[in-house]
Design a protein that fits this description.
about 120 residues; alpha/beta; Dna Topoisomerase Vi A Subunit, Chain: A, domain 2; 4-stranded parallel beta sheet; 4 strands
Length: about 120
């Protein structure tokens, strides 16, 4: 199941033709500063789906923001606490194709470095 914030995110991911699975739309992100808690988005419905469906992986595809990261970590924690035999992953983020490193903000650069990948496993 690929977890996204809004229905428009499903359309964006579908246009990439890289994922052929189910989606779960949260209709928001956890944002304590804006008074949005876990109960205010569709996390209970996600946990119910996971308890009733054979799912091997939850891919969290939220925006690379403070709220997106927080929501990702909260989802991972819920899944771990409930001992669901599900792999939890996060889509990579970083420098967009065609962009120049010197024009990137600090958060984007930090994310690109954090989610780097090896060219060859050693």
């Amino acid at each position: 199941i690929c977890v996204v914030e809004e229905p428009s995110d499903v359309l964006a991911l579908e246009s990439a033709h890289a994922y052929k699975g189910l989606y779960h739309v949260l209709h928001g992100l956890i944002s304590p500063m804006n008074g949005v808690g876990p109960q205010d988005i569709r996390l209970p419905e996600l946990m119910e789906r996971l308890s009733k469906t054979q799912v091997s992986e939850v891919i969290v595809a939220t925006n690379p923001s403070v709220e997106g990261e927080g929501t990702f970590h909260y989802i991972a924690k819920l899944i771990e606490e409930r001992n669901y035999p599900v792999r939890v992953s996060r889509i990579a983020s970083g420098i967009p194709m065609g962009a120049e490193v010197k024009y990137m903000d600090q958060v984007t650069l930090a994310s690109a470095l954090r989610y780097r990948r090896n060219v060859k496993d050693r």
